[in-house]
Amino acid sequence: MYPFARFIKVLFKARKKPKIGYLDSSSIEFRCRPWDLDMYNEMNNGRVMTLYDLGRFDLSYRNRFAKVLMKNRWATAVAGSSVRYRKRIHIWDKITMHSRCVGFDDKWIYMVQSMWVKDQACSSVLIRAGVTGRDGLVSPQTVIAEMGEEISQTPMPTWVNEWIASEQHRPWPPEIDRND
Question: Contact, 48 vs 32, CB < 8 A?
Answer without folding.
Answer: no
